[in-house]
Automatic annotation (TrEMBL):
Residues 1-23, 497-517 are annotated as: Disordered. It comes from Sorangium cellulosum (strain So ce56). The chain crosses the membrane at residues 162-184, 204-224, 236-254, 260-276, 281-300, 407-431, 461-484. Residues 1-21 have a biased composition (Low complexity). The lineage of its organism: Bacteria, Pseudomonadati, Myxococcota, Polyangia, Polyangiales. The keyword Plastid does not apply. Keywords: Membrane, Transmembrane, Transmembrane helix. This is Membrane protein. It comes from the Bacteria.
Length: 517
């Protein structure tokens, strides 16, 4: 295989010598940018004092969420898949889209007192998000193809390829086991709420979707790296990746739109971090497609379990009833829950920080601890609508609301900052680092793809996702060693078998055929 190393330009030695000086300046630049963003945090209270009725909080929030893209380490840019733009945009959708839309279409251009109080909490979260994204911003790097495409086996299906395919198959097996515990016939005839009830306490089985997701993105990156190196893609890699991706369509049948959307987003984030330029126009088309898909699924699941014809008719009727496609019901409900939590302050935690402690305790599987604590969203559902909660309905408990319930405005800023830094920003930095292996990139973008879903969720759900992805990562590493050991063992036995065959073969039978070799 020809070397992929590019020739050094003249003066490369001088540039290499100057590198340490540039590295010493970078932290100072990040510190300065972070201090500047921290200074901008004072804009919200000042503007609200001058404008009132939630206008100041709204304008200040928009400025803060735009700040990381302007203070970006590689220079100002607003690309939807850049970490400094993607993460604040995900937070914006979870807490600010609905009230800002309401503000724009209102005659008085103002929010109610209850909504203004909620926007104050959302602003505190925006401060944490902006500071975390600015402080961790780094320049995007070109992937090291020489490391990602081994020179000694450039065209072979690698041990890690086989291990990843096996992990994906294990994930499919876990999901199939969950469906078998319900019964295939009953599974396809259940309504949406019953489907959620059946998943309760079976996270070990439904976590199989995360194993499949890692396999999909890894195999996609494997294809991309081989294509960039000008090499052919092994057929088993392409076929396995396609089959795993198609399996996510089962979620649509279940009335769940999230898993398929997060998988597509994971692939897009992986491609962007790998240096593949995705034009904004295609991202815009994709967003419209996602919106349409989400609306159709939400309409169809009203008749879930009643047959395909009934679901299609329900989706069509739901589309006909929509007057303003900009009003997204899910975002409205998430914001309504934040307004309720901030203004009514439901007594669903016993002491400050309880939900953060319980988030770790809930990781214990329910079969091992049947009396484990309830999640915050479950407690909120039982408080606000116990009858619906018992029938499987749920109410999204956003991260901003969870932080506020624990430690007020400071808790919201801390929780959003931790989410932004540890679970979204740092994984995307790993995915975009020059020397990151494909497996690490795949797990990282899968975790980061849940940004919106987790800004509108609570800590316990995010920890479960992180644990599932960690298991997928560890299982792939272990299986890679097993596959490599088996391959070396078979390779060592191969010559012995051939020599043994030549000794035992009667010369009068002639040479062995090609099929026997």
């Amino acid at each position: 295989m020809p070397s992929l190393r590019l020739p050094r330009a003249r003066g490369a030695a001088r540039a290499a010598g100057a590198a340490p000086a540039r590295r010493t300046k970078t932290p100072l630049g990040r510190v300065t940018a972070t201090l500047l963003v921290g200074t901008l945090a004072a804009l919200g209270p000042i503007l609200e004092g001058a404008l009132g009725d939630g206008r100041g909080w709204t304008i200040g929030l928009l400025i803060l969420l735009a700040a990381p893209s302007l203070a970006r380490a590689s220079g100002p840019r607003f690309h939807p898949l850049d970490p400094e733009t993607y993460i604040p945009a995900a937070y914006f959708l979870s807490v600010a889209y609905s009230p800002i839309l309401r503000l724009l279409i209102s005659r008085e251009f103002s929010l109610s007192s209850h909504e203004t109080a909620a926007m104050r909490v959302a602003y505190a979260g925006a401060v944490g998000c902006a500071l975390a994204c600015t402080a961790l911003s780094r320049r995007q790097e070109t992937p090291d193809l020489q490391r990602l495409v081994p020179a000694h086996r450039p065209k072979a299906t690698l041990d890690q390829d086989w291990a990843t395919i096996l992990v994906g198959m294990v994930g499919l097996g876990l999901v199939a086991t969950w469906i078998a515990t319900i019964g295939v016939g009953r599974f396809f005839s259940m309504n949406y709420a019953s489907n959620h009830l059946e998943a309760d306490g079976k996270g070990l089985l439904t976590g199989g979707w995360h194993l499949i997701g890692v396999a999909v993105v890894y195999l996609f990156l494997r294809v991309v790296s081989l294509r960039k190196a000008g090499l052919a893609v092994p057929r088993v890699v392409s076929l396995a990746g396609f089959c795993f991706f198609v399996s996510f369509l089962l979620n649509t049948i279940m009335g769940r739109r999230g898993p398929l959307v997060w998988t597509v987003l994971s692939v897009a984030l992986a491609a962007h971090a790998f240096g593949i330029q995705i034009r904004r126009v295609w991202l815009a088309i994709g967003m419209v497609g996602v919106l349409f898909y989400g609306i159709v699924v939400e309409g169809a699941r009203a008749e879930q379990g009643s047959g395909l014809d009934a679901q299609i008719s329900s989706a069509s009727a739901y589309l006909d009833r929509i007057e303003n496609p900009l009003e997204i019901g899910e975002l409205q409900r998430v914001y309504a829950n934040l307004v309720s939590v901030v203004n009514e302050q439901p007594p669903i935690i016993s002491y400050p920080g309880e939900s953060w402690v319980n988030a770790v305790l809930i990781l214990v599987p329910k079969p091992l601890w049947s009396e484990r604590p309830l999640g915050l969203a479950q407690r909120y559902a039982m408080w606000t609508a116990p009858d619906l909660a018992r029938r499987g309905a749920g109410f999204a408990m956003g991260a901003a609301a969870e932080g506020y319930l624990n430690f007020g405005l400071a808790g919201t800023a801390i929780e959003i900052a931790v989410f932004s830094a540890l679970f979204f920003m740092m994984p995307l930095l790993v995915a975009g680092a020059r020397g990151s292996p494909l497996l690490a990139r795949a797990a990282a973008v899968n975790l980061a793809s849940f940004a919106y879903n987790q800004f509108r969720g609570e800590l316990t759900a995010l920890l479960k996702i992180a644990v599932s992805l960690g298991i997928a990562l560890l299982a792939t590493v272990v299986l890679t060693s097993v596959v490599a050991h088996l391959r070396r063992g078979l390779a060592a036995l191969g010559p012995t078998r051939r020599r043994s065959g030549r000794r035992l073969r009667d010369p009068r039978l002639g040479p062995s055929s090609a099929l026997g070799r």
